[in-house]
Structures are given as C-alpha cells and as structure tokens.
Design goal:
Low-confidence stretches: 11-26, 208-233
Helix content: 40-55%
Distance between the termini: 10 Å
Number of strands: 2
Mean pLDDT: 82
Order of helices and strands: HHHHHHHHEE
Shape: globular
Strand order of the largest sheet: 1-2
Strand content: under 5%
C-alpha cells in the first residue's frame, strides 16, 4: 500500500493549492473544465489511478464499465492478480490477453467481485455494485476506518440484499459515497467522473503516515483515527 499512502499525501496538497484550471490544462483533457468533479479527476489521473480515454479527453459523463472499475480497484488497492487461477467456469468471457484480464482476476480472487460465469466487461456499474466493491476492497486490505455509527434512512434501498445494504451504509457513513437527500439511487449507473470523486474520498480517508493509530487532519471539521494493519511490511 506504499504507493497508495504516498499518493494520498500528494492528493491533499493538490486540494489545498486551488489552481484547478491551470492543472486541468496540464492534464491535457479538454472536456473536464468546469465539471463538478474536475478536482477529483485531476487527482485520480495524477496518481495514475485513472486514465483518459485518449490524451485529450477524459469523458467525465461516460458510463463506468466493469472492466474500467476492475483496473482502477486493482491500482488503488494494489490487488494481486498475477498467476491467479480462477475457479473453473468463472469469467469465461475474459480473454487472457485482454487489457483488463489481470485486474478482473485480481478482483475476483480477492472477493471484490462476486463469483459469476461471465464478467461482462462492457456492462455499466450501478451505484450499489460500486458500494459493495469498495467495501470489499477495504475489507480484503484490512483497512479499518472509523465511521459514523448510524443507520441512514434511504427511500430507495428496501430491495437491496443485506450485503448491498451494509455496503451502502459503509460508503455513506464514511463519506466515500455520501447522499444527503434521502435517496441513494442504487440502480443508477456510475459515471467516470463519479468514480473519480469516489477515489478522491478514499484517498482523503487514507491520507496518513505508515504509523498506525496516528491522528490525521482532513478537510475542515473532520478528524479521524485510522488503523492500517495491512501496511505492515
């Protein structure tokens, strides 16, 4: 997780600088200026957690695909996927030489993605699935983040499974994917810009030194004590 922690420290400095327009130009993307998640996109790309669709475009409103999510989660949480053998019949639609194959295997082997016969690389990712994947990634890396101990009341989560509901509570109460209007929108497809914002929240929450139990000052009004046993080397 060393790269993950180092990236977090730099991300906080970026947030404090405030020269977002100039940075957007440096990033080379012509389609992110003025986008609500512009800051998050810059940080995600600067830390090499995400890439543009080409050198000039990030496509912030483009739908996030499962292949893209797998690659981003592998990079962010440093999930191992080399020489991983999946159970027979799992992800039969993933070609061994595809650009996302290793990431898909890594996410599956670590339980970030559920067992399935097909991966569905080009399928959109609903918010409920992103919530589950994020919670699972934190769990597999044993990153313990204190969160508000309350049960959020959402008007649209009654049909979720218990796993999905617990994941929604996790990402809401930690501020990773917060919702303040009473609706989580679990079936809504996640955009690339929204994933960047989620990554920024993750980076902020894990912006600590490698010393366990250190108090980390985040954005105004927030102070967390975070234990990271997975960082031990």
């Amino acid at each position: 997780m060393k790269r993950f922690m180092q990236g977090a420290l730099l991300a906080i400095l970026v947030l404090l600088m405030g020269a977002m327009t100039a940075m957007a130009q440096d990033a080379g993307f012509k389609d992110i200026a003025g986008v609500e998640q512009e800051n998050a996109i810059i940080v995600a790309c600067d830390q090499q957690l995400m890439n543009g669709v080409d050198q000039a475009q990030f496509m912030p409103e483009g739908q996030l695909t499962r292949a893209q999510l797998a690659v981003v989660l592998q990079r962010t949480f440093e999930l191992s996927g080399k020489d991983v053998a999946l159970p027979e019949g799992m992800y039969a639609d993933v070609a061994a030489d595809s650009w996302y194959a290793e990431a898909a295997r890594a996410c599956a082997a670590n339980g970030v993605f559920a067992y399935a016969a097909e991966f569905g690389a080009d399928e959109a990712v609903p918010r409920s699935e992103l919530a589950v994947c994020v919670q699972q990634a934190f769990a597999v890396r044993q990153i313990n983040i204190p969160m508000t101990m309350q049960y959020p009341l959402f008007e649209d989560t009654e049909d979720l499974t218990s796993q999905e509901l617990m994941a929604v509570i996790f990402v809401n109460n930690t501020g990773i994917m917060p919702s303040a209007d009473g609706y989580f929108r679990p079936d809504e497809a996640v955009t690339r810009a929204e994933l960047a914002q989620t990554l920024l929240q993750i980076v902020e929450l894990t912006a600590v030194t490698e010393d366990n139990d250190e108090v980390c000052k985040l954005s105004p009004g927030r102070s967390l004590v975070i234990s990271l046993p997975a960082n031990a080397r």
